[in-house]
Amino acid sequence: MFNNLLQWKIFLQDTGGGETYLHWLMNAWKWTLMVSGLGWIVALVAGVIFGIMRTLHNKILIFIGNAWTELFKNIPLLVQIFIWYHVIPSIFPGLRQVSSLTLVVFGLGFFTSARISELVKAGIESLPKGQYQAGVALGLTPFQTYRYIVLPLAFRIILPPLTSEAMSIIKNSSVAFAVSISELTMFALQAGEETSKNIEMLFAVTVLYFLSAFAVGRLSLFVEKCMRLPGTGGGQK
Questions:
Q1: pLDDT over threshold 70, residue 175
Q2: CATH no., domain 17-227
């Protein structure tokens, strides 16, 4: 009955452009993963930098880190995407030649970086102050202390919530359809309209979103187990 309700053969039909809907679906999935992956790189780099700045003993750096985090955290993602696509190029005409993909990647990345900044700050502040003081006592510079002592420990603490953010950025990438990037959500809307098979298209897109986020979750769980400190982890020996 389920197979009769969903007419899967629609994915083998030609779109009229020399490709099948299945090929279009796979291409849309590729764009979703590309936007998510590049956005995650931007988010991780910016989030770590501004998260660290918020823990330093420098009022100016703390202010900059807090301002960045509050700005991108408190504006809805879709609004930020529209600002990047419509407003920023109007203010800076040189950016009119920048592709929609680049603008969406930075919009999505900066939005997520604010959340990562909060995680990094919380992870660092959860460590005993003796960790930093021990690094200073060993003659390490503040940079070396963060690099070799503070950050490795903090990342072990915040890895689970970082996993959630990595999964969320895949789902949040759906806003890219608003600026005409042919990712999964746009595929579902356009293909559903062309074929009148909205259920089939939305079901396929839902499965691919789930598989993408699930794969990230499994990979992060593996990394978490590898980075787990001895003597921790739910009683495992």
A1: yes
A2: 1.10.3720.10
